[in-house]
């Protein structure tokens, strides 16, 4: 379908899944549940809805996802959406906002602000907003919850859902563990009860900042691992990249005010390992193709899925420089993606860095 084909050409931008749950109606849900979607992660909303035996209204899935999810119970109804833009019919938006749960999945964190702006006047005051975007707004360097809070207000009702989860496996009911993070512990606990099911185990966390930064960075590291795999560097190099990537992630989280334990949890180490090693990882696949010598633009043009780390690398690098945090892997991935750098030269730069203590405080700097 043309609308989904257009979505896939949004180069490397992450999908936005937005679920609004009325506090007084959780956990039991009845009636129509609309899902406005253009990417795979919306199926998590489907699983949640099915768990509570509610009816669903959602668009038809793109063909590859339809084939993958042949075992998932079909849903009825379609809705019109302008893929890759923030243009949504006001009448349809009003209908969505009058429902009990709203699932919205757009394939661009960079347009989330415009979508939120249109939703703000219609969003019920008592609704909780759960964001699953894994990225950083490129111009402002704002995290997803910052963007949502600026446009929707009510930071106390915002939460982020993250963790190691391929959409295909979640939709098929494979066991998955996620984390929901919010500044308000009561909100996180309430959402935990609402989203959890037999196959989906949700933990709570009080560090939404760290969860968001970790979710953005793991995609960048997966590109690096994919490159190393295609260069034939072996399992030792893969383990080293994942471990040192985790160190870079931890430094940035701490510099921005996040909690030190967050990166050791599901949103950090868990999602990092999955994205760097899983065969379903889109970002790792981009890295693999780069390592084989393909041009980035050719990879993106031929891909039917979105690799979020491509654009996230730009924002993370800028955030690292702004915060004075040393992130050599991020800088090398940026060179390869956006400065026509050669993977082999990036490897040489990483290997020739000065020796240091693993336990000592990291040096700061731009490179």
How would you explain this protein's 3D organization?
The protein is of the alpha/beta class. The chain folds into 2 domains: 205 residues, 3-Layer(aba) Sandwich (Rossmann fold), CATH 3.40.50; 143 residues, Orthogonal Bundle (N-(1-d-carboxylethyl)-l-norvaline Dehydrogenase, domain 2). It contains 16 helices and 8 strands. An 8-stranded mixed beta sheet has the order 3-2-4-1-5-6-7-8, with helices on both faces. The longest helix has 23 residues. The termini are far apart. 49% of the residues are buried. The N terminus is likely disordered.
CATH level-1 class of the largest domain: Alpha Beta
Class per helix and strand makeup: alpha/beta
Per CATH, what is the topology of the largest domain? Answer: Rossmann fold
Rg: 20 Å
Number of domains: 2
| Known CATH architecture of the largest domain | 3-Layer(aba) Sandwich
* Total strands: 8
List the helices and strands and how they pair.
Elements: H1 2-8, E1 16-22, E2 32-37, H2 42-51, E3 55-57, H3 63-68, H4 90-97, E4 101-106, H5 112-119, E5 127-131, H6 144-152, E6 158-162, H7 167-171, E7 176-181, H8 185-195, E8 200-205, H9 208-230, H10 234-255, H11 266-277, H12 282-291, H13 296-302, H14 309-323, H15 328-338, H16 343-351
Parallel strand pairs: 2-3, 2-4, 5-6, 7-8
Antiparallel strand pairs: 1-4, 1-5, 6-7
Helix pairs in contact: 5-6, 9-10, 9-11, 9-12, 9-14, 9-15, 10-11, 14-15, 15-16
């Amino acid at each position: 379908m043309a609308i989904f084909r257009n979505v896939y050409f949004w180069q490397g931008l992450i999908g936005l899944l937005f679920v609004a749950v009325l506090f007084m109606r959780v956990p039991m849900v009845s009636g129509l549940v609309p899902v406005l979607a253009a990417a795979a992660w919306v199926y998590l909303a489907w699983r949640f809805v099915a768990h509570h035996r509610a009816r669903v209204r959602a668009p038809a899935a793109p063909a590859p996802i339809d084939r993958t999810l042949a075992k998932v119970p079909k849903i009825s109804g379609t809705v019109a959406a302008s893929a890759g833009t923030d243009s949504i019919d006001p009448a349809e938006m009003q209908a969505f906002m009058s429902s009990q749960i709203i699932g919205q999945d757009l394939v661009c964190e960079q347009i989330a602000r415009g979508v939120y702006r249109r939703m703000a006047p219609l969003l019920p005051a008592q609704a909780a907003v759960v964001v699953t975007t894994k990225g950083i707004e490129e111009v402002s360097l704002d995290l997803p919850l910052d963007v949502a809070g600026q446009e929707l207000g009510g930071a106390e009702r915002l939460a982020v859902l993250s963790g190691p989860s391929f959409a295909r496996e979640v939709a098929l009911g494979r066991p998955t563990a996620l984390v929901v993070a919010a500044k308000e512990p009561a909100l996180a606990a309430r959402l935990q009860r609402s989203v959890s099911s037999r196959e989906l185990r949700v933990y709570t966390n009080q560090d939404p900042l760290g969860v968001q930064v970790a979710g953005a960075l793991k995609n960048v590291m997966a590109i690096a691992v994919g490159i190393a795999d295609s260069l034939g560097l072996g399992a030792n190099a893969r383990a080293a990249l994942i471990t040192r990537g985790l160190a870079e992630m931890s430094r940035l989280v701490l510099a921005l005010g996040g909690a030190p334990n967050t990166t050791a949890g599901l949103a950090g180490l868990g999602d990092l390992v999955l994205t760097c090693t899983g065969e379903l990882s889109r970002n790792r696949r981009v890295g693999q193709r780069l390592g084989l010598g393909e041009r980035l633009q050719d990879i993106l043009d031929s891909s039917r899925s979105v690799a979020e780390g491509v654009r996230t690398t730009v924002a993370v690098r800028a955030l690292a420089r702004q915060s004075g945090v040393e992130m050599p892997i991020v800088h090398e991935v940026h060179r390869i993606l956006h400065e026509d750098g050669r993977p082999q030269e990036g490897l040489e730069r990483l290997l020739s860095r000065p020796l240091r203590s693993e336990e000592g405080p990291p040096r700061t700097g731009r490179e």
